[in-house]
Design a protein that fits this description.
Elements: E1 2-5, E2 9-13, H1 19-26, H2 42-52, E3 63-69, E4 74-86, E5 89-98, H3 107-122, E6 127-132, H4 137-145, E7 149-156, E8 159-167
Antiparallel strand pairs: 1-2, 2-3, 3-4, 4-5, 6-8, 7-8
Helix pairs in contact: 1-2
This protein binds coenzyme A.
Coenzyme A binds next to strand 5, helix 3 and helix 4.
């Protein structure tokens, strides 16, 4: 099911047919450099797709979505909105990952901006966050470009993170 569309991208629910393409990203240490759990196995990638097939099971309007380049119909990443509880507070994170073959074309920012707008305007969320490793310069730049502001450093069972946030305008 299509979630949203931008000039160059379509975001839709993940499908089992995305497994090989998603695993190509998740097995790559460079793509997963700033993720506390590192690279994922084929089985773990399959589990994640199954978890998100119809949106997040407990919040179907949220989830990780396949990110497809319209011109080529290629799977080029997975982006979306993820629910977390951080220090007792319910939060929704704008999440993005674009295949490194496509970096530097503004696609990460294009996806993140559209997801942010979707969260605020379509889902009526009042606050969105990004959780970022403080050395992930590209991700920090994307967050800042869509209007996120550094709020605080934190730490959970996965390790330290920097929390960026934005309230609905
Ligand atoms: C973060 C990510 C989605 C950015 O994707 P992208 O399509 O290359 O992003 P954009 O082309 O929109 O670039 C966004 C900005 O980041 C900057 N940037 C890109 N790589 C950078 C780097 N290594 N260091 C500093 N800035 C960088 C770009 O110059 C651009 O800023 P500008 O417009 O001011 O020049 C991509 O690097 C990625 O998927 N990384 C691996 C997964 C990941 O870490 N996701 C985030 C988890 S919190």
């Amino acid at each position: 099911m299509k979630i949203l569309e931008t000039k160059r991208l379509i975001l839709r629910h993940l499908e089992l047919g995305d497994l090989d393409n998603l695993f190509a990203l998740y097995r790559d240490p460079e793509m997963r450099q700033y993720f506390p759990d590192g690279t994922l196995t084929y089985a773990e990638t399959k589990e994640q797709i199954e978890w998100f097939l119809n949106g997040h099971p407990r919040h179907p309007e949220l989830g990780l979505w396949a990110t497809i380049e319209k011109e080529t119909d290629q799977f080029i990443g997975r982006c979306g909105l993820l629910p977390w509880t951080i220090d007792g507070r319910s939060e929704v994170e704008v999440a993005y990952m674009i295949d490194k073959a496509y970096w530097g074309q503004g696609l990460g920012t294009e996806a993140a901006q559209a997801i942010l707008d979707y969260g605020f305007k379509r889902l009526n969320l009042t606050r969105l966050i990004c959780l970022i490793d403080d050395e992930n310069a590209a991700s920090i730049r994307v967050a800042e470009k869509i209007g996120m502001v550094f709020e605080r450093a934190g730490e959970d069972e996965h390790g330290p993170f920097h929390l960026y946030s934005q309230a609905m305008a």
